[in-house]
Amino acid sequence: MEAIRRRADLDRLVAAGGSLVVSVVDGADSAAMAFTGNVKAVSGRLPRMTVAVIDRLESPDLPALFGITQVPALVVFRAGVGLFAGPAPSTEALLEALLRRAMALDMDAVRTEMSRERAETEGTMAHRACPTSQRVPPEA
């Protein structure tokens, strides 16, 4: 299990392009640390999954990247794409189900859907009038 202490550590692991599960914990909280043990156990049953941990006490800025404010939490990447960031599943069975669903996704379909949603959002934003344009006085 690799400790992520800086943004560069996270970027390197994500850029590797494999399956990455990140346990976000408070190193002083024994329940959160037990969750990391569950992540390690479950990921050992799945093929080619890298496990990493972020201790929010050591690196408080990293959980904020994902909107994580409470621990334990989980972040899942596959093929360089973030698939999940949120509260830790409450049981090992739920954790395994979540990770198996992530592993089963068709990543080409995921990227296609992301591109479509991005294009729709950009198209909507491009056609929205700038609020200050409404302030131009009418011609007399």
Describe this structure in words.
The protein is 45% helix and 21% strand. By secondary structure, the protein is an alpha/beta fold. The protein has a single domain, classed as Glutaredoxin (3-Layer(aba) Sandwich), CATH 3.40.30. Strands 1-3-2-4-5 form a 5-stranded mixed sheet, with helices on both faces. Helix 2 (30-44) links the parallel strand 2 and strand 3 (49-55).
Topology summary:
Layout: E1 2-3, H1 7-15, E2 19-25, H2 30-44, E3 49-55, H3 61-65, E4 73-78, E5 81-87, H4 92-104, H5 107-127
Parallel strand pairs: 1-3, 2-3
Antiparallel strand pairs: 2-4, 4-5
Number of strands: 5
Q: What is the third-level CATH name, the topology?
A: Glutaredoxin
Task: Tally the structural domains.
Answer: 1
- Largest sheet report: 5 strands, mixed
Question: What general outline do the C-alpha atoms trace?
Answer: globular
How many helices in DSSP terms? 5
Q: What structural class results from the helix and strand content?
A: alpha/beta
H-E order = EHEHEHEEHH
Tell me what the CATH architecture is: 3-Layer(aba) Sandwich
The CATH class is identified as Alpha Beta
Order of strands, widest sheet: 1-3-2-4-5
Distance between the termini: 71 Å
Helix content: 40-55%
CATH superfamily: Glutaredoxin
Radius of gyration: 20 Å
* Average pLDDT figure: 82
Strand-residue fraction? 15-25%
Poorly predicted residue ranges: 127-140
